[in-house]
């Protein structure tokens, strides 16, 4: 009788430990996977057109007295993508506008893009007056990333600021980026 009870207790202990370890692994891997997806969705700008033609919307107003005038240089303090943060930027254009952080589903398919910086008010199709409220949905004609043009974007945040078009050399691979759209005044600092 003692052997059976001892065997039964050992068996229950092993089963309990296996169940607990299975739950623990599931929770940890589920959390890690969720975090990886969140990071990739929020931070992956691999489909972003780093350089552009330099064309700007007709209605966009040139800043009269920007902190960083055209032709000056500054250091990028916030990297929307790899190789930006810490790079030296040459200011190509400075414009007063409302800049938006947006989330959207690419029209070409694929994962939803969360918290993309930046789309400006003049890149929205038939918007109400700026600034638009958070959670407003509107279409954009911006083409910074594959699948962005004609996408319906959700406004996550609006910032009235000066935005800059910049040239810079990526700190990671030495890629020369021309007419990058956009960085805000808060994302630049004097050399």
A few lines on this structure:
With 191 residues, the chain is of the alpha+beta class. It has one helix at 2-43, and strands at residues 61-62, 73-76, 88-104, 113-120, 137-139, 152-169, 176-184, 188-189.
Give a verbal description of the structure:
- The protein has a domain of 129 residues: Domain of unknown function DUF1541 (SH3 type barrels), CATH 2.30.30.
- Strand 3 and strand 4 form a beta hairpin.
- About 19% of the residues have low confidence.
- Strands 1, 2, 3, 4, 5, 6, 7 and 8 form an eight-stranded antiparallel sheet that branches.
- The protein is 22% helix and 33% strand.
- It is of the alpha+beta class.
- This is DUF1541 domain-containing protein.
- Keywords: Signal.
- Pfam families: DUF1541 (PF07563).
- InterPro entries: DUF1541 (IPR011438).
Identify the quaternary structure here: single chain
Per CATH, the architecture of the domain at 61-189 is Roll
**Secondary structure: helix percent:** 10-25%
Query: Can you tell me the CATH class of the domain at 61-189?
Result: Mainly Beta
Q: Span between N and C termini?
A: 82 Å
The CATH superfamily of the domain at 61-189 appears as Domain of unknown function DUF1541
Q: Which geometry do the CA atoms define?
A: globular
Strand content: 25-35%
The whole-angstrom Rg is 24 Å
H/I helix tally: 1
Average pLDDT taken over every residue: 80
Unreliable residue runs: 11-47
CATH topology of the domain at 61-189: SH3 type barrels
Record field, number of beta strands: 8
Class based on secondary structure composition and strand pairing: alpha+beta
Helix and strand succession?
HEEEEEEEE
Major beta sheet summary: 8 strands, antiparallel
Protein name: DUF1541 domain-containing protein
Pfam families: DUF1541
Keywords: Signal
Domain DUF1541: 70-121, 136-185
